[in-house]
Each structure stands twice: as C-alpha cells, then as structure tokens.
Amino acid sequence: MSTTRPGTPGPPPSSRPDPPDFPAFPRAAHQAVRDRTLRGNLRHATHTIRAKRAKAVAEVSDWAALREAGKQIKDHTLRHLDRYLEQVEETVTAAGGTVHWAVDAEEANRIVADLVKETGQREVVKVKSMATQEIGLNEALEAEGIRAYETDLAELIVQLGKDRPSHILVPAIHRNRGEIRDIFRSEMGKWGRPAPEGLTDRPAELAEAARLHLREKFLRAKVGISGANFVVAETGTLVVVESEGNGRMCLTLPETLISVVGIEKIVPTWRDLEVFLQTLPRSSTAERMNPYTSMWTGTTDGDGPSAFHLVLLDNGRTDTLADEVGRQALRCIRCSACLNVCPVYERAGGHAYGSVYPGPIGAILSPQLRGTASEIDASLPYASSLCGACYEVCPVAIDIPEVLVHLRERVAQGGPATRGGNKVVLRPAKGHTAERAVMRAARWALARPGVLRGGQRFVSRTRRFHPRSLPGPGRAWTGTRDLPAVPAEPFRDWWQRTHGGKEGPR
Amino acid sequence: MRVALFLTCVNDTLYPDTGRAVVKLLTRLGVDVDFPTAQTCCGQAHYNTGYRHEAEPLARHFSDVFRDYEAIVTPSGSCAAMVRELYPRMGARARTEGRGDTLERVLAPVVPKTYELTEFLVDVLGVTDVGAYYPHRVTYHPTCHGLRALGLGDRPRRLLRAVKGLELVELPGAEECCGFGGTFSVKNPDVSAAMGADKVRNAESTGARVLCAGDNSCLMHLGGIMTRLGVGMRPVHIAEILASTEEAPSA
Amino acid sequence: MNGKERILARVRRALADVPRDDRPYAQAVRRDYLRQHDERGAEDLVDLLAENLADYRAVVHRCGAGELPGLIAHLLGERGAKSVLVPPGLDETWLADTDVRRVADRPESTPHELDRVDSVLTGCALAVAETGTIVLDGSPDQGRRRISLIPDHHICVVRVPDQVVPSVPQALERLVPGRPLTWISGPSATSDIELDRVEGVHGPRTLEVVLMSG
After folding, report:
1. Is the pLDDT of residue A506 over 70?
2. How far is CA C57 from CA A202, A379, C15, C61, C197, in A?
3. Of B14, B47, B194, the CB nearest to A486
4. How many contacts (CB atoms, under 8 Å) link A and B?
5. CB 3.0-4.6 Å disulfide test: which of A32, A94, A155, C190 passes with A150?
6. Residue C112: inside a domain
7. What's the pTM?
8. Nearest residue on chain B to A407, judged by CA atoms?
9. Rounded CA gap, A484 and A477, in Å?
10. How confident is the model at residue A443 (pLDDT cuts 50, 70, 90)?
11. Domain that holds residue C192
C-alpha cells in the first residue's frame, strides 16, 4: 500500500498503469495481513455491503431466473461478438457518433490523446472507468501534456493520495474516513480548490468537500472521458450506471465525449437492459436502483456533447475469448459482489492483486488479459481457497473457481493459449518444477494401494520422531499451525486386522 | 444394500478414528459396509492445484474400485464434491480436447451414487435421529464444498440437533471459508492462517468446547491453529459425534 | 489491416471452436423472470412508488391537479429559492402561484450561469414503482439533461397513476431508446466512504417528487 506524502510539490500523476513487476500475491498479502488498519477497514466495509446485498437480492423472487438470463445474454453476445461489434459500429455511427477500434492499450491511448488534442483542450474530466484504468490512460495523457481529473469520489481519493485503486466499485475501500480527511486536507489545494477549513471526518462533510472541489472542473470542462456499463447493439445506446452525479456531469456538460469501452460490454437488444438494470445495482451497491443511470445514443441536437467518440477496446479480450473455459470471465458486469464476499480479498486487500481488477474476478481476468508470464499473474490463480462464495453471488454466474483451476493448470503445466491474437503453446511457469515432480510421484503412489499402504505404515511407525515444526517449505504450514498427530496405524490396517471391527479389539 | 466406504487418503492415513466411527455408525443403522482396500485418493489435490492430467488416472482408479457398489459413502464434503461435480467436468474436458468420451464413460457410473455421509444418512437412509449420545456443547462449521458444491443445507445440523445431550450453538460467520483450501494453505500461508484464526476466534466466542465439521482436512488446519493459539477447543468430525452412544461414548 | 479488421479477425479465430448457433435471438435467451414483482392495482402502485422514493431519501408529496400551483409555490418558498429553471414546454400554470424568477435554459446558457439558479422544476417520462425511480427523456416538459443536474434542488412532477409503471422491464418497453434518458432514484449519493451510503454529492442534493393525481 502506498502512503500519502504530504508536501510533494504539484499534482502528481494518478494511478500508474499495471507494471508487470508487482510482487507475487503471497508476498504482497504477507504485508497486508499484518496491516491492522487495512484489515479493519476492509472487514468493516465488506461485511456491511455483504449483508445489504443479501437483503437486496432476497427482495426479488426471480433472482435465479434473472441470473440465468444475464448469463445467456452475455454468452450469446460473446458467441456472435463479431456480428454485434459491426452492428454497434453501424448504429452508433447512424446516431451521430464516431467509432474507433483499438487492439491494445497503446492504440487506445493514442486514439484518445489525438482526439483530445484535436479539441485544443489541455484538460479532461473523467467518470470512473475500469477500461481507462486498465490501459493507463491518465498517464498516457499526462505524457502528452493533458491533465485528466478523476471525478468519482473514490477515484479522487486515490488520485489525490497518489495511491492505487483496490476495489472495482470503491477504489479507496482501503481508506477509512480519517485517512480520507487527511488526504483531502493536504492534497486538494495542489489540484484546485482546497478542502474547507476545519474539515472533519464525517462522510457527509467529505462528500461536500469533493462537491466543491470538483464543481469548478465540471463547469468549465470541454472534454469528458467515460467508460460504459453496457452498449446496446440494436440501438447504439450507451449506458452508464452511477451514484454521485459526476457521471452525468461528464456525460452532458462537455462539448466532446469520448467513451472507452471493452468489446465485451455489448448486449444485443434494448430489452436486455431489463435484466442487468435489475441485477447490477443490487449486486454492486445493494440498492434496488442506483441514483443515476444515463443512456445516450450518439449525439442529440442541443442536448449534451456535440461530438461523441466510441473507442472499442480489445487489449487481451479476444485472447480471453479464445479460451474455452476462461471466456466466461468476459460475462463480468463489474459489480464487485465477488470481492465483497471473498475471504481472501478481505484479508489480503485489493493491492495484493497487482491489477486494476482485484479480488476473485481479477484473479481470473488479469492472467487472461495480460497473460501468465509475470510473477504476479502466475500467482493470481492460486490466490483463492476455492470456497465458491464468489460464484454463488455472481449475477452472471461466472464459475470463478472453475476458471481459477483451469488457469492453475496453464501455469503449472503450460499448454495451448492465445496471446496477441496468435495461438501459442505455453511452457510451464518457473518455480513449479518441484511441485510437478511431487504431484507426479504422488499420483504414481496413489495409483498403487500397496505403495500408499507402505508409506502410511512408515509414517505411523516413525511417528515418535515427528517434529512439531517443519524446516524448509514445510514452514508454510508450521509457521502458523501445528501438525496433526499421526495415528499408530492407518485405517486400512485396522480394517484388515479386525475385518471391519467384526473381530478383535476396537 | 452394498455400500462402500470411501474414506479418503487423508482420513485413512491421519484420521482412522473417523473411519472407525463411520463403520460403527452405519453398521448400527443396519448398513452392510465394505472398505475396498484398493482405494486410494480421488485426485482432488492434483486437480485443484492444476494437475488435471495427473488426477485422471486416480479418477479412473476410483471408478474401477467403486463402480460395482450400490452406494459410495464418504466422510468428506470436498472429496464427494470432487467425484460429483468435477469428475463429469474432467470427462467433458477430455472430450473437448479431442480424446473421445472414454473418460466420461468410465467415470459416469460412480458420479450419481457417491454421497457425503450426512447426505447419505438423511436422503438415502431417511434418518435424522441416529441414536447418538454426546453430552457436549458443540458448534458446527459447514465446510465450503459441502455447503456450496453439494448443497448439504441443514442436514448436518438436523442430525446434530437430534443427538442426545448435545447442545448445538450457532457459529458466527459460519458460511465463511476456514482458509484451508488444499494447497492454498501452503501456497498462501499468511492469508490461510488469518482466515483460520478468525474462524477459531468465532468458534471460541460461542463457548463451545467442540468444533464440528464434515471434513477432516479443514479440521486439521483449524486444529493446528487452535493448539498454536492455545484455544481450549478441539476439532471433531461429525461422524465421531454421530457414532457416539451412551454405551460406547466418543471423547 | 486496420484496428477493426484485426479485432474482427481475432474474434472469429477465437470462436472457431464454438458450434454455430443460428437460432433467432428471441429463442437464444430464456426469459422466465417476472415482468413485474407485485401484482397490485394502480393505486397501490403509487403507494409503492412513494414508499421506495422515500426509502432513498427523495421527499415525496401528493396532490390533486388543482393543488399543484400552490404546492410548487410552497416548496420553492420553503427552500428560499429566488430563481427556478423552467423547461421550454412546461405547463406554465404549474408556476401560477409563485413569483420566483423563471430562468429559461437557452442553448447558449453556460453551466456557470445555470449553477447560479436555485431550483429546477420538471415533469418526467415515467416513474418505476418497484425501484422508486423517475425517468426523464428530454421531452419539452423536462428540457436538456443539464437542467435537472446543475441546480441543487429538483422538483419533479409525476402524473399518477398514468405515468407509473410497476417494474424495470415495463419501463424499458415504454421508453424510446434514441432519446437521452436519465434514470433518477433519489438524490445523488455515494457509497465510497467505507461502503456506507451518504446522500448528496454532485447532482441535486434535494429531490422532491410530486405525485399529482387527476
């Protein structure tokens, strides 16, 4: 976790793009687990929202049917994605928008930077968007001399605190109200209107401070940048679901609007929104409906931006689509319910996932979008106890444990995959050689009952000499837990000796 | 009814008392139990760690050993889930990899007749009062695979509530994972232990002396944390509670 | 190859293993979820709407058509509003009982000018009872999207029961996709501090909904 450094001159660049050199998950989690403030913040926040979500979902009697429909809509769209992408281009263009196609982050950033430069503007206001974080747009714009202002409250906290986001919905979930107050007090003045005198840590006051700070930026903004929750192929309509009104500000006040949208965000028809507008708010903020949902189709004469650009982003999505098991991750509607129920996320925190996509969904998205070559991406599939709570709450029924296990196989054994649009055969990741040998030996022994029995007897007969703690890799267990006592004989010896307890002493 | 006990490799090696308890319990309920000694391991650790191809021969072996029984009972939610949920998936994957439907066909017979112990008692034998006696205060942790993969629901609790002398107290945060997770426990030891410590603290807060569950691997993890933290509780497999009677009580 | 061709080619290669599915879309998705969750009569639906609006901190008022001008005058007065933004097609009689200064939203009005206006009065396209949502579609009685956004006080009049639909699916059926749509459920809010909901951020911090019958 990075910390605030008061006194750093000038507005710093905001969240960095994902460098592939984050430490492996266990190493990052080692720190987080010991951070009492972080643990307390995360526990409080996730437990609050967990209970609320359960209540919001229980209100609708047809939740299972909505979930299944959402899954089928997304699966159908992915199966015919080429057709729907072309339809989106047609309908958005017909409605007065311009469609751009970006194969990767670099292309997307180039397209957006050029569009901003064409307007002659040097600053943009942004609605929270996972896609633009994923491609590191803010940094790319900064390099071109364009300042991007994040306007979502949590994104603002992250940007002002020179921090990294740690949650999909609430990027500053790792910060409590006191920390937020401190960041506002020390940093707001460097970016614009300073925090009001005597700012306390009351959430309402903090929200008011953000309102005042950002208002001057909204009112003068000429260029807005957004993502989208949904793009309706049939009508060319984009949908942004939000709470604070910063989205509405960015989508309606500027003259130019640029939306960067992953190609998996498409739904075929207008009617499909009836499913997701019910499942998304209840899954994410645990509300019947979020405060604001904006829907726009191209440009409207005399209302809102006169220029609209849609940037369709691949950046690893087609590679993910090529994987028969892993492609279900593209159903994700970024609700973050899986983060909020995940016991691993709750203890390791979002930063340990080394990606803008933390939590269970991040553990299956990042290694697919970025590949498994880096240390962090190769460790993410193992960042789960496979408890299945994420799958249970997912509103589009992504079987996250199934994909995790599938990606473990890719890391441990290698095999066919698609990278950058090309079919490749991956080699097993480094550091799994010993494990592979153990697994193979264990399989060999376990396929032979006699060998298993010999091993069991050896363990039983040497039990007096077993240490309580183990050296080397065994410390991973005994560093925190005692070993179980080994019995005098394995069950199978008892069974054979007594014929299932029918003879001899029990 | 010809019933096979699939004890699991962990129980066979480390928890023979659980195996003896299952035999005692089922025999008391009139079931003719066999323990096919050729049994080894369902392959779950291999599969879940990313070694599906190493798990396949173990699954075939499982099917060879158990296919002719009418029912296969196991005192492990996670091994039951391996057979029921993941064997079909393994077979399907082999097919989509162009290896035909052989694996699917070999594994198919054991899938529907593999039962977790409490499921077998309640659904197949139709009993909730198994005539047990266990005069202790007990809290129950529903393990993840039993809870979410098998959908055991309140079956274990119904069985425990019918035990004479047993006081069942609700475990706060019961549905949260204990942090074992197979190789997760050693690949991510810090998070695993933090989850386990929270589970133990919750169990301790109930005032129970016994933490009961249907999976000894989870209990091994929690028991190891209990002794390390010096908590005055012990882990006990549900089979050992259900097997206990006034004449022959378990500890 | 340009970006479009490359992406489409990658998509097609990625899907090479997937069996074709030429069913029409209408058959591809099983929609056995409910069209509405609550089979109530029109009057009960209005009650449900009022309940859900209030649950998310909108201030709800009910009146007959004849009482509306008096109520609007009262609400603006209570607020101490000196000016009110008026969409071009708003029924002028709604403001008959108040002399608060009317401000028209002209195309050349700047956001800074609108920021100096105290309140805004609009109609709506419809309201959704199950979720406590009002939807604006830019019709003449609602105006441009920005007018219901910048002032800190929004009064929205819903004609009940005609404009009330029970559910989200039925709302979408009645809306026209090509129009700029804004769905509003309570005043602006945030859950960004400790995942706890706080009302009042960038949008109007006070939302008053008038359910007008007759």
Report:
1. no
2. 19, 45, 47, 13, 11
3. B14
4. 199
5. A155
6. yes
7. 0.95
8. B50
9. 11
10. confident
11. 40-213
